[in-house]
Amino acid sequence: MSELERLRHAMRATERPDAGLDLSAVMREGRRLRTRRRVAAAGAATLATGLAAAVVAVAVGVSGPGDPTPTEPLPPAAVASPTVADSPTAQKSPDRTPPPTLASDRPLAKPLGQLVDSGVRHGSERRMYYFVPVSVPGQPKVSIGLAAGRQTPGGSLTTDILVNDVEGSDRSAGFHQIGYDERSAAAPVPTFGYFVGPAKRIIGTVDGRQVDARVTRWSLDSQVVIFWFDPAHLTPGERLDGIIARDGGGRRL
Amino acid sequence: MARGDADFVEFARVASARLVHAAFLMTGDHHQAEDAAQTALVRTYASWSRIHDDDAYGYARRTLVNHLVDGWRRPMREYPTDEVPERRRDDVADDVATRRWLIAILGALSPRERAIVVLRYYFDLPEAQVARELSVSVGTVKSTSSRALEKLRSATPRMADEEARR
Predict the structure, then answer these.
(1) pLDDT tens sequence across B62-89
(2) pLDDT score for A197
(3) CATH for the stretch B81-166
(4) I need a labelling partner for B112 at 20 to 30 A (CA). Which of A62, A235, B25, B88 fits?
């Protein structure tokens, strides 16, 4: 028997007939998730107009194209909270936030600080990254999430993916959630995320190849480094095998 | 129970053992595997009206794999090859030996390699489909499979020696 045949055999021979899953719990959580998705979709549609108007006003009046800073009050965040571990009250609360990288839920919330123009273009739209407020049940130290969106020449913003921590602290040192394209948006989303600490370089590894990310500091907290990978160097959606950060002296953080 | 719910229960009863086992092969941890399979089934049920006439099993499998791969976003984890993550006293000797060999072999692979090996050789998916489900190129699947099998070949003699010494 070759190694491959032995591997196939072993993978099948070690199957256990009883998975031991609680199907009642599965269906209960599935119904909650379905409800949240419906509410999220409705909320996102309602908010699109208000957010677009605010961004246009700022782009013209304050920061100029490519780096707008919303300063006007915006509507509250859209609903989206499909994390299966959420509390039962989540479906009733219109200010919950989504788990990482679920593109099917597209919240629109007031961006915190300046929007970051990635330099990536999708036709006439610009790929932007920005933090938005989030709320995770039972996790008081998680209050921000990083969103990837597209901005039209008119200034309206469409959120494609929002990633946020679901436990711990969103300001703890090191890497946080990384967002990958899920082929659900109108345009591919370059891989992105944030790091907390004095990082000057962010380097991803994929198939033994190193890829440098583009980095910039968040306008509201200089310890927060937003990074994204040029889609020409890392195909959107392609999973990283590893990622590291280095400081200005080249030391690994 | 609505007809759709009954269909889902039937589907889940048939599919769950395989989903849990696939997650176990990718993680080496039974608890994590059960959590991942449960999450995949929750999301499958949430989309059931849209997918149940199409390829529900494929949807659940893709959801499971993506969920696990997303869990590896953070810096690389190490899978020591000479440690067995879990042993069950009630397993018969052959099952224990096979499981030990399997976990050690898979533990020598990176998360991406494990995912590709499981999709390719446990689910028997063609390379093109593995590439689609992991959002990578076919070339990446080929090269990663090749590298994983090379590790497999190099690890087997060493493990056979270790088994012989026991």
Answers:
(1) 889 888 876 654 433 333 333 344 444 4
(2) 94
(3) 1.10.10.10
(4) B88
Hey, are the CB atoms on B46 and A30 less than 8 Å from each other?
Answer: yes
- Assess contact for A29 and A99: CB atoms under 8 A: no
**Pairing mode of beta strands A157-163, A242-246:** unpaired
Q: Is residue A145 part of a domain?
A: yes
Quote the percentage of chain B above a pLDDT of 90. Answer: 19
ipTM reported for the complex, 2 dp: 0.75
**Each residue's pLDDT tens digit, A92-107:** 332 333 343 333 334 4
Give strand pairing partners of A203: A212, A244
**Residue ranges in chain A whose pLDDT is less than 50:** 42-107
Among the partner-chain residues B34, B37, B75, the one whose CB lies closest to the CB of A242 is B75
Spatial separation of the C-alpha atoms in residues A213 and A199, rounded to whole Å: 11
B154, burial (CB in 10 Å: exposed 0-12, middle 13-18, buried 19+): exposed
- How many Å lie between the alpha carbon of A150 and the closest alpha carbon of chain B? 21
Residue A11 domain-assigned (yes or no): no
What's the longest Cα–Cα distance across chain A? 72
Give domain status of residue A8, yes or no. no
pLDDT for the residue numbered A109: 67
In chain B, which residues fall in CATH 1.10.10.10?
Answer: 81-166
Domain assignment of residue A81, yes or no: yes
Cβ separation of B118 and A14 shorter than 8 Å? no
DSSP state of A17: S
Domains contained in chain A, number = 1
Out of B37, B72, B156, the one facing A19 most closely (by C-beta) is: B37
